[in-house]
């Protein structure tokens, strides 16, 4: 079997109402999805999605004519490309989808079979007034989720605490609450300074009183010593690693005991091939492994297979912030959006590979240059 073609395409969904992400000062009026398909001479097609893989065009010959099952070889090439150019890890996702189809096995089983699904936590994305966020929390509980992540990014962190307290009052102990401080990285046009260690420690003290499960990205992504000291000074779990660029940086976070919860994303760093090793290292050191999944349903599926199969993760991020961010919008490339069950469990199928079905007609209608 040989790889015969690699095709990239871009698809755009107009957003009305628009989406106001907490981590971006600019309003999102459309949502773009970048797809990559790897075709073989036996008619199988693997699908991946994530970043636009800037700089990959022109390097297709590094894969065409090769056996798609040479996973380790392909991983090394993708790692090299991702160092020199953009993040090319959607290729690894597509190769795993192909590998599952070739072996006629779902990825969660190929990756170890620890579990055939994972508990999803509802991940909000926007900043809301206390009453609005309390209403969202009530909806989340009614939908069957057992946990909710709330975003911080208001001008004063004490205002964030007030909103969180209103949610805790509204839901009591019926939901586990996580907090994303959004201090680890910024959009290119956002010049705000991240919190200092003392600021993060002050926030952590407030979160302890509100029984928060984890505190995500509380410091700059490179402040290893600050994260370690913060972790030692609070009972709240410290989480991070979602946009870390290199696998060796993730290993550093684990080795230096910077975090309690490691959150890399397979479509952003390392693919499934690299992150399965990171997951094993994290678990061996007593850390939780809980992938970041803020993207479309293809990336969500890839991370779900990874989390369930090789890590048996306690939680998985499930973007959910209606009406601006719904499963239907998030997963518009798929025939059916991914939906968690009544108990918040995201069940994976026995279908080979990722087990997805693309909505080809809709993808064609949303294709852009």
> What separation lies between the terminal Cα atoms?
31 Å
Total number of β-strand segments? 13
The CATH homologous superfamily of the largest domain: Enolase-like C-terminal domain
What CATH architecture label of the largest domain applies?
Answer: Alpha-Beta Barrel
CATH names the topology of the largest domain as: TIM Barrel
Number of helices: 12
The biggest beta sheet, please? 9 strands, mixed
User: Any idea of the CATH class of the largest domain?
Assistant: Alpha Beta
Q: Hey, roughly how much beta strand do the residues contain?
A: 15-25%
Counting copies of identical and different chains, the oligomeric state is single chain
- SSE succession: EEEHHHEHEHEHEHEHEHEHEHEHE
Describe what this molecule looks like in 3D.
With about 375 residues, the protein is an alpha/beta fold. The chain has two domains: about 5-105 and about 360-369, Enolase-like, N-terminal domain (Enolase-like, domain 1); about 110-345, Enolase-like C-terminal domain (TIM Barrel). About 35% of the residues lie in helices and about 20% in strands. It has helices at about 70-85, 90-105, 105-110, 130-140, 155-170, 195-210, 225-235, 245-255, 270-285, 295-310, 325-330, 360-365, and strands at about 5-20, 30-40, 45-50, 115-125, 145-150, 175-180, 210-215, 235-240, 260, 290, 315-320, 345, 365-369. Strands 4, 5, 6, 7, 8, 9, 10, 11 and 12 form a nine-stranded mixed sheet that branches. A hairpin with a 4-residue loop joins strand 2 (about 30-40) and strand 3. Helix 1 (about 70-85) packs antiparallel against helix 2 (about 90-105). The chain is globular. The two termini are about 30 Å apart. About 45% of the residues are buried.
